[in-house]
Amino acid sequence: MFNMFESFELAADATPAGGGGLVGLILPLVLMFAIFYFLLIRPQQKKQKSRNLMLGALKKGDKVVTIGGLHGTIMEITDDVVVLRVNDVTKLTFDRSSISHAKSSPAESES
Prior knowledge:
By secondary structure, this protein is of the alpha+beta class. It is built from three helices and five strands, in the order ααβββββα.
């Protein structure tokens, strides 16, 4: 009679030996990491680097836009605080990191 344990042994013998199993498991993970790096991580690092350069180059008199969309001119600037003049009388204090981008003035864009 045919034993159940013998059928398991026959089934185990029928499966092919996985000689390249480790490479077959690691290669897709390496490819996924490379794709994530070049499509997500690297562009984000470049964007962060350019933002840090922009924040470092800010000076008094620059026209800027905050993250909240407020337009103003820098009146005072320190390492972590920026005072913006919004209109002739109103001055508002912001963290330096709240500056979204600097606007180019017409004189700068002609040069």
